[in-house]
């Protein structure tokens, strides 16, 4: 048979196959290879989670695994004390001091990459922690980190953790306004930023955006630390009196050490703002003991991380995936975490494959949006490189369709790596639903069963479990250590957003409390879960979570706009794209000028990721008789689907007008 014939046959076989067994060579060495863990964890819940806590070093042992006396304010490992930075650094020094903790690959190819051994990382984290302490940062002060993908970001995170100061990382791609909103919400008085970073060959200014953001902060910001990512020549900005050069601070504290501050298990490790149904981002609070245990345990059980690995997660640390699976999980386990500054298509579309080849990467954890792009670019790019060091592949952020899954499995994993499709959220802290790679059959398109000890049920609107084959709402019926503890300074919203839907909120009985992540899902006969997507007004653009209300309020803020509705429409590469329907104010013209101002308005308020794919002008929005905007209908229009029943519309004629415009 010719190579080509063989390829065709292989494609045909893969296309038909809907279940894949874990590769034998993988199973033989897997961290978890025994199916009995599911039963064991169920029987021993919640004590099973001692196994996660046991992955960490505690300076004070905990008294209780789970305190569920005040639901839904669950507490884990109460009475225990530990420090996250000591767990990610100090305890590895004896055995792994000379091993790389972080391999950093900058985007420019003519620049040296950087390796930080555990020893070196420990040293710089200590120096920077000493510098922060001198600036006045103390326990429980929220430090905002508005930084690109440079090693100083994990260093700053760990320095904060060392001091017991929660960090709030703001994605560098977010706008100045988004920075100000988050600093204001947290009353954060300290900021670490950078002067810029590289994107597709260009040096981008980040300092100016930072300064604009600071202008919008409603309280005094005592200190700002600026990392000079672009080199002296490009620094180009005189620093204000409360602004400090990162390198200078670290040099001033050369060799300084800071004792890791003992934190209570329930003390906040960090805050992460994420999008929800309303226009205001939610400050998700994660704790030191539960979160870190969860990040470490899932890294070990699902990503199969071992100390000698070179593990590569291509997410940005500005999102939860980077927190849990570039920084905290891998470093807690003492492995080598590879971080890459740039995009996968610079200088060419084989950049990730080049990196994997160069560093002998053992696991790749990426997102469906990236996999769809790789697939579109073609297998010639991975084919150029030796990817045989890979042992496991992972995906996160949105549903992955079977075709993309199989492409990843075949062209990246060479059919020798299990693929874990991991469902979780900012709020869950880490993975919740996915196959254990050494144990479970994989079914492309379905994330898998819930992890051992995780109680997920798909329910109908009344909260009753649905039959296999039916769609319903994903719920989590029992608490877990990695869960958010509350929304920062807003316990009420925490209860409303995540618990009220399916819980008896008057009850003190923990079993009456059900967590609702606002995702739809389907169950099959084997208990595998296919996640269908959000059921709230959140859209998922390239795996990035955006609130339609946030985007709408940005658009309504543009001069000439009277009303706006934003929905997600299907998109080949991004998964979903932003569609904006806009009504203009009297006296303003619908047209290119306004369209451009709307796009700019969204970029200013949130960032380029939220840029509308289409802006559709309409004299009216389709509304129900009670005056609610019919988003479902707008989604159908965006997706070019039939309009179904419009009879309950107050203004059915408007639909055709809108559709006409989208088609044009
Ligand atoms: C979606 C990212 C399908 C889901 C870690 C969830 C997924 C939201 C998957 C959380 C997956 C994440 N399959 N959908 N494997 N993983 N999602 O907070 O809608 O940025 O609620 O956390 O992404 O997004 P977040």
Number of helical regions: 23
Strand content: 15-25%
Rg, rounded, reads 25 Å
**Biggest sheet record:** 7 strands, mixed
CATH topology of the largest domain: the name is Rossmann fold
Determine the CATH superfamily of the largest domain.
Answer: ANL, N-terminal domain
CATH architecture of the largest domain: 3-Layer(aba) Sandwich
Summed over residues and divided by their number, the pLDDT gives a mean of 94
CATH class of the largest domain: Alpha Beta
* Measured distance between first and last alpha carbons: 49 Å
Q: Low-confidence stretches at least 5 residues in length (pLDDT < 50)?
A: none
State the shape: globular
Strand order of the largest sheet: 5-4-17-16-18-19-20
Helix proportion of residues, in percent? 25-40%
Bound molecule types: 5'-O-[(S)-ethoxy(hydroxy)phosphoryl]adenosine
Protein traits:
664 residues; alpha/beta; Rossmann fold; Luciferase, domain 3; 7-stranded mixed β-sheet; binds 5'-O-[(S)-ethoxy(hydroxy)phosphoryl]adenosine
Q: How would you characterize this protein structure?
A:
- With 664 residues, this protein is α/β, with parallel strands linked by helices.
- Helices cover 32% and strands 21% of the residues.
- The chain has 23 helices and 29 strands.
- α16 (368-377) crosses α18 and α20 (548-556) packs across α21.
- It binds 5'-O-[(S)-ethoxy(hydroxy)phosphoryl]adenosine.
- 5'-O-[(S)-ethoxy(hydroxy)phosphoryl]adenosine binds at residues 274, 319-321, 396-399, 421-426, 447, 517, 519, 531, 533-534, 540, 545.
């Amino acid at each position: 048979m010719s190579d080509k014939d063989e390829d065709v046959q292989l494609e045909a076989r893969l296309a038909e196959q809907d279940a894949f067994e874990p590769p034998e060579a993988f199973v033989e060495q897997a961290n978890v290879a025994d199916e009995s863990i599911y039963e064991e964890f169920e029987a021993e819940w919640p004590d099973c989670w001692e196994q996660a806590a046991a992955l960490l070093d505690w300076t004070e042992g905990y008294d209780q695994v789970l305190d569920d006396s005040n639901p839904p304010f669950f507490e884990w490992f109460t009475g225990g004390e530990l420090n996250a930075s000591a767990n990610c650094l100090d305890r590895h020094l004896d055995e792994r001091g000379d091993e790389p903790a972080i391999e950093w690959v900058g985007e420019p190819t003519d620049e040296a990459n950087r390796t930080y051994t555990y020893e070196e990382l420990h040293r710089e984290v200590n120096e920077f922690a000493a510098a922060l302490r001198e600036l006045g940062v103390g326990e429980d002060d929220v430090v905002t980190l508005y930084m690109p993908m440079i090693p100083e970001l994990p260093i700053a995170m760990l320095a904060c953790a060392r001091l017991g100061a929660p960090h709030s990382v703001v994605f560098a791609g977010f706008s100045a306004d988004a920075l100000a909103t988050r600093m204001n919400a947290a009353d954060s008085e300290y900021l670490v930023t950078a002067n810029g970073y590289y994107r597709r060959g260009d040096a981008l200014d980040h300092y100016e955006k930072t300064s604009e953001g600071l202008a919008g902060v409603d309280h005094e910001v005592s200190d700002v630390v600026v990392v000079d990512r672009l080199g002296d020549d490009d620094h180009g900005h005189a620093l204000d009196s409360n602004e400090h050069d990162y390198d200078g601070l670290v040099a001033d504290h050369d060799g300084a050490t800071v004792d890791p501050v003992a934190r209570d298990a329930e003390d906040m490790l960090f805050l992460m703002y994420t999008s929800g149904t309303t226009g205001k981002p939610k400050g998700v609070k994660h704790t030191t003991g539960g979160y870190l245990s969860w990040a470490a345990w899932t890294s070990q059980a699902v990503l199969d991380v071992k100390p000698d690995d070179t593990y590569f997660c291509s997410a940005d640390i500005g999102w939860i995936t980077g927190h849990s699976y570039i920084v905290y999980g891998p470093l807690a386990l003492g492995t080598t975490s590879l971080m890459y500054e740039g995009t996968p298509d610079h200088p060419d579309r084989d950049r990730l494959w080049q990196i994997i080849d160069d560093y002998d990467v053992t696991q790749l954890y990426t997102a469906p949006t990236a996999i769809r792009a790789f697939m579109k670019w073609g297998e010639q790019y991975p084919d150029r490189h030796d990817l045989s060091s890979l042992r496991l592949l992972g995906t996160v952020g949105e549903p992955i369709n079977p075709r993309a899954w199989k492409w990843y499995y075949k062209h990246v994993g060479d059919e020798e790596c299990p693929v874990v499709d991991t469902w979780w959220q900012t709020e869950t802290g880490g993975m919740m639903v996915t196959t254990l790679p050494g144990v479970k059959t994989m079914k492309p398109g379905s994330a898998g069963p819930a992890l051992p000890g995780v109680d997920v049920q798909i329910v109908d609107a009344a909260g009753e479990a649905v039959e296999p084959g039916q769609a319903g709402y994903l719920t989590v019926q029992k608490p877990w250590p990695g869960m958010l503890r509350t929304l920062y300074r807003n316990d009420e919203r925490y209860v409303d957003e995540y618990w009220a839907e399916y819980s008896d909120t008057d009850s003190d009985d923990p079993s009456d409390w059900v967590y609702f992540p606002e995702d739809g899902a389907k169950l099959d006969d084997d208990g595998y879960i296919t996640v269908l997507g959000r059921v709230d007004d959140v859209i998922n653009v390239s795996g990035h979570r955006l609130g339609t209300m946030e985007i709408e309020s940005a658009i309504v803020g543009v001069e000439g706009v009277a009303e706006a509705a934003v929905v997600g429409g299907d998109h080949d590469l991004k998964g979903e794209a932003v569609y904006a329907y806009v009504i203009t104010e009297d006296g303003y013209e619908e047209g290119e000028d306004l369209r451009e101002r709307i796009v700019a308005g969204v970029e200013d308020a949130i960032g380029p990721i939220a840029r509308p794919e289409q802006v559709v002008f309409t004299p009216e929005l389709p509304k129900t008789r009670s005056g609610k905007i019919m988003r479902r209908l707008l989604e159908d229009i965006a997706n070019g689907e039939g309009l179904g029943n419009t009879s309950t519309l107050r203004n059915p004629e408007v639909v055709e007008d809108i559709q006409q415009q989208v088609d044009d």
